[in-house]
Amino acid sequence: MNIDKNTTLDRIKSLTEMHGAPAFENDVKEYMKQQMEPYIDEFVENRMGGFFGVKKSKNPNAKRVMIAAHMDEIAFMVTNITVNGMLQFTNLGGVANDIWQGQRLAVKNRHGEQIIGVVSNIPKHFRTGNEGAPQIHDLTLDIGAESEEDVRDRGIEIGDTIVPNTTFTQLSENRYSAKAWDNRYGCVIAIEILELLHDKELDFDLYVGANVQEEVGLRGAKASAELINPDIAFVVDCSPANDVKSTQSFAGQLGQGTLIRIKDGTMILKPTFRDYLLQLADHHHINYQYYISPGGTDGGEIHKANIGIPTAVIGVCARYIHSTDAVFDIRDYYSARELLQQALLNLDDDQIYTLQYK
Ligand SMILES: [Zn+2]
């Protein structure tokens, strides 16, 4: 079974263009559920908003395997509406201060409508040359309103969320730009792994879904781990590439394959789990690269939950994540999807025991 490339690209376009700020992930969730429905037996949901489709095994003593993406993206929240109709905002998730001036962002109002604005900036004519980069709280979003009342008439209130207004774009044969590839990558692979495994009888119950609020400090992962109590887990997430100026070791290079994330600020990959993935990648000729990062993923919370849940991150890298446009290479997506598929197809009770206790 294979998935047509255009189907994958349609899913990437739909998901990356969705508005899914931390704690406001419902649009993403509805889309994922609708796409996953044909391939699962039921959905389970935690009370923070994370959800998982369950593919049940015929094995009466089936173990549980979890695959978790996260649905949220870096975003902003409206904190004030000025008398002249500008929106002030605060960030939801880690963003650099100096990349927002002049960008187009979209506010989602209380009626679910998207309203586009431009982030204020000072033109060259009015600059002295001594301006530093403004802080996020110095920026305003200009939606073309003439007064505070004008803003409220358009259904916008304090607390509404803002994300980049970015169209998914093909740049070259294999490379694309989009907002929120961190982590709609995970959302796409979650849908497609279920589709790919649809006809396969697995030894274990497979829980595939996504957490909320990763970008504000891995807040949604624990509730999912405790809901499912999996025997092992895979996290699917996107990490920053660092290959623009020069090739640095462990930085993540576009087009060089899926990431074997051996150490980050929140988790060290278990050696048995590392070797399991490496042996599969070698055997199936899947491109991969080691990845070490000071950052973290939901794996940081999941692997410590309950009595310990061996967890591996199946990742990809992309340039300029946490901005209006990330650039990624579709071949890396396919490498990650192939590795995840092989990791599941080769999993049985003995292998799960090895990953847990060896
Ligand atoms: Zn992120």
From TrEMBL:
Binding annotation for Zn(2+) 1: 70, 182, 237
Cofactor(s) required for function per UniProt: a divalent metal cation
Source domain of life: Bacteria
Short name of one Pfam family: Peptidase_M42
Positions of the catalytic residues: 214
InterPro entries: Peptidase_M42 (IPR008007), Peptidase_M42_aminopept (IPR051464), Peptidase_M42_dom2 (IPR023367)
Name of the featured protein: Endo-1,4-beta-glucanase
Organism: Staphylococcus simiae CCM 7213 = CCUG 51256
